[in-house]
Amino acid sequence: MAADEKGTSSIVIEEVRKRFELTNGQSIEAVGHVDLEIAGGEFIALIGPSGCGKSTLLRMLAGLEQPSHGRISIAGETPEECIKHHDLGIAMQEHGLMPWLTAKKNVALPFRLAGLPVDEDRVDELLNLVGLQDFAEALPKQLSGGMKQRISIARSLVLRPRVLILDEPFGALDAVTRRLMNNELQRIWSQKPTTTILVTHSVEEAIFLADRVCLMSPRPGRLALIEPIELERPRKLETMQEQSFLNLLAKLTAALDEVCMPEVAT
Ligand SMILES: Nc1ncnc2c1ncn2[C@@H]1O[C@H](COP(=O)(O)OP(=O)(O)OP(=O)(O)O)[C@@H](O)[C@H]1O
Ligand SMILES: [Mg+2]
After folding, report:
1. Which ligand is nearest to the CA of 53?
2. Residue 251 in domain
3. Is the residue at 104 inside a domain?
């Protein structure tokens, strides 16, 4: 686990539950009971079956939903306060780009929303980073799904946030681009350790990037397993071929099968 460092933020998730009231008078419990402490600068990957509450947990961390029970604090502040201080970078499952703004203006949007002057060099740097410098003037409808995701990642990083919340940011990328982006994300993270929570359906991606992988059980989501990943950093693409990596992959894949379909997992 990375130590708390100046400029990074630890997160405390305490007895958090989320129940949604439905229009028919019924309700569903999306998140059961989650307790988790994340050290400043730590990278957490969250995996689990579809519908287990991963996005709901991230939306609560991002201040977009309120827990029905429990508390979340980020460096001692509420998520809302953290957003006010521009400390939170978010790329959600739906890329959320503004359809009327060009790629470049979408990346620059957090400056405008924060009432800050746009740092054009920083915007260009991030467009380069995600390989879309030639599409700076394109509108989202002119971009592929993977390109839109890359714009969304660039936008989440533009203000150099202390906490990064990423919900399946690489889901629509082809395998090669996805590996490159994994490497890039690791590089960005290691330059300035940012407390990061990444939701992914890829167990390989989770192990490659994280300090700890958290496995959520089916709805109502709870943490079924927390696995520390002690592979040396920087991890290289070849790390994925090493026996220690393959052992973790086998262990976590079996654990995921077990929570998804306990009756067939042996
Ligand atoms: N605004 C909402 N109102 C009612 N129910 C909701 C709402 N948002 C999510 N849910 C329900 O909460 C549960 C968890 O949804 P969530 O989107 O958090 O799952 P997830 O783990 O992110 O799934 P996936 O891997 O498919 O993205 C689901 O049953 C979903 O229908
Ligand atoms: Mg989701």
Report:
1. 1
2. yes
3. no
